Amino acid sequence: MGVKLSSFIFVTLSAISAGQILLGMGYIFVLTTWIILHNICQIDLDYKQRGVLIVARKERRATVVLYNRIVLLLLNVAPPLYSVALFMLVGCAGVIVVLNLMSIKMHGILPLNIYILGPFFSLGLIIVLNTVLKCASSYEVRTKDMLHRWKNDTQLVASGAQKEHSRRVAAMRPILLFMAVWRTNILPVDIKFMCDYNAFLVDGTIAVLLTDE
């Protein structure tokens, strides 16, 4: 009895520690993608406020410089970032499928304190991944709308001596992240990708269940 009680306590404490680690990792990924999205929104807000408060073109062009800095930052870290993100998503998909299988098939086999880890970790991973993918897929939507307004702003895209700046603004593109193997882009991270990824998790779980039968 004492051995079983000790095992129960140690396994429960291990589960709590693992949950804290998972939660911490989730915070890192969620905060990183959210901070970038927040900065993009702040640049757009700053652009609007400068347009209302300050008419000088050079003040509005400062927001373009800030946007380009974010683009350059993402370009510099793109190869390792995209590769790590791809392998992370594939690995998490495999873990989620296994946890779903554990939640469905082993409810009468495993002790409660171990069985509950399956749905808990599966739900936690799904929430974290969907939050990250939602923020990442919002980059393109947000920046596309923002650049559309910039390119149609006569004060920002000036004529005459500002033709060079006008061409720079016209050449700017929305921020779109990719799943890639180093510099080989495979899939764009957009709303469709997020939906397809969730569908893949469901299909993978069903396929494993049918195979196990």
Question: Could you explain the architecture of this structure?
Answer:
With 213 residues, the chain is mainly α. It has one domain. Helices cover 80% and strands 4% of the residues. It is built from 6 helices and 2 strands; from the N terminus they run αααααββα. Strands 1-2 form a two-stranded antiparallel sheet. Helix 1 (2-53) runs antiparallel to helix 2 and helix 4 (117-151) packs antiparallel against helix 6. The longest helix has 52 residues, at 2-53. The model has no long low-confidence stretch (mean pLDDT 79). Keywords: Membrane, Transmembrane, Transmembrane helix. The chain crosses the membrane at residues 20-41, 84-102, 114-133.
List keywords for this structure.
213 residues; mainly alpha; two-stranded antiparallel ribbon; 80% helix
Please give the share of residues in helix: over 70%
Gyration radius, to the nearest Å? 23 Å
Series of secondary-structure elements, N-terminal to C-terminal: HHHHHEEH
The general outline is: elongated
Structural class call reads mainly alpha
Strands of the largest sheet, in order across it?
A: 1-2
Count of strand segments = 2
Main sheet: strands, sense, barrel: 2 strands, antiparallel
Please give the count of helices: 6
Taken as a percent bin, the fraction of beta residues is under 5%
Keywords: Membrane, Transmembrane, Transmembrane helix
Transmembrane segments: 20-41, 84-102, 114-133
